[in-house]
Amino acid sequence: MRMGPAAGRPASLAECRRRDLADPLGPLVRRFRQPRAGIYLDGNSLGPPPRAAITAVRRALEAEWAGELVSGWNTADWIGLPARTAARIAPLIGARPDEVAVADSVSVNLFKLAAGALALRPDRRVLLAVEGDFPTDGYMLQGLAGLRPDLRIRKVAADRLAGALDGEVAVLVASHADYRTAALADLPGLSRRASEAGALTLWDLSHTAGLVPADLAAAGADMAVGCGYKYLNGGPGAPAFAFLARRHHEAFANPLPGWMGHAEPFAFAPGYAPAAGAARLMAGTPPILSLTALHAALEVYDGLDPADLLERSRQLADTFLARAGPALEAHGFTCVSPPGRGDRGGHLAFSHPHAYPVVQALIAAGVTGDFRAPDLMRLGFSPLTLTRAQAWEAAVRLERVMDSGAWRDPAFAERRRVT
Ligand SMILES: Cc1ncc(COP(=O)(O)O)c(C=O)c1O
Q1: Relative to the CA of 45, which ligand 1 atom is closest?
Q2: How far apart are the CA of 18 and the centre of ligand 1, in A?
Q3: Is the distance from the beta carbon of residue 44 to the nearest atom of ligand 1 less than 6 Å?
Q4: Can 204 be counted among the known catalytic residues?
Q5: Domain spanning 77-301 has what CATH number?
Q6: Class assignment of domain 13-49+305-408?
Q7: Which of 180, 280, 344, 378 does the annotation list as catalytic?
Q8: Taking the model in full, what pTM does it have?
Q9: Where are the domains of the chain?
């Protein structure tokens, strides 16, 4: 990892400002409510609110819920909102609208897809997963194995996945980007390799959806899940999405077959008949207020090329590194994100023996990043919501926090925050 000034990286705040002004994507930041003070480098964990989402939720509360009451299911088309939201996510992940459902959380969707995938490979007993992947994914697989004592979970390091894909593996479950380091998996290569081995793929796109184009169809991926509240900016606890490739629609059975995944929920039929397409992945009543926010948030992607967004995020990270590099090195940080900008998603992670108090001191200095146990400082560079000038200023404030020793204040060592 090259930390510090380098060719192509801005060399001053003035240059950052000039580049921001010249950037055709620059005006996008104005579509987001910016923090009153400070710089937000945690859009990879919870995206800031798009102005459109704030307006849409207010309207949904006042005009739709208060105004229409139960009629809102029809007059405001609440019933169609999951499908309309799925249609906005589909192009961002290389899917067709009927291959995406918006429902529940990543955890729950992962469970539904993994269980359904196992049923598509009845003669195989192994779930292949990645050591150190986001814990909820592993917990869900353990829960599944608890219901199916014949199953085995095989966990290997991310770089050993290809070799572990043998004739026993039913499903490969892996993240597109590592939640700690942002290292990108070879999604197309592993999807191809899994398919050659007769296994299905279930990708967790939580740290890439809206940032790194996954192009699921081109990759031949089978299934995927992803977060609505990170780069997609759908708001705290926004519903997640689930992708199910069209070729599996007929055979796939949702293990949680609720009425909203029924072909005709309002027929109130005693027997279950799945809805067409990925909509069968739904279970219960959709959370309309949260969905309203997510649906409106996705408007910002209209007409944007996802590749441009990724490049912008990388330029923001480069800007931060250009200014922060010397201070990071002087104060004992080690970048654990991949050195090649093409090998990582949208955040940078640095290990430091005192990462927790450093992150708290940084937050107090007006730069919100996050801490991940045991010793990581994570800083996210969301392409829609940040400017290069902010990335530069964040580096200046980090340097100040470290040079002044502000992080040594005992108040910052107290573990009070949940994220
Ligand atoms: C990679 C990954 N998967 C899953 C989750 C959890 O998603 P949910 O809370 O929607 O179940 C997260 C949350 O940060 C995550 O980073």
Answers
A1: 14
A2: 36
A3: no
A4: yes
A5: 3.40.640.10
A6: alpha beta
A7: 378
A8: 0.97
A9: 13-49+305-408, 77-301
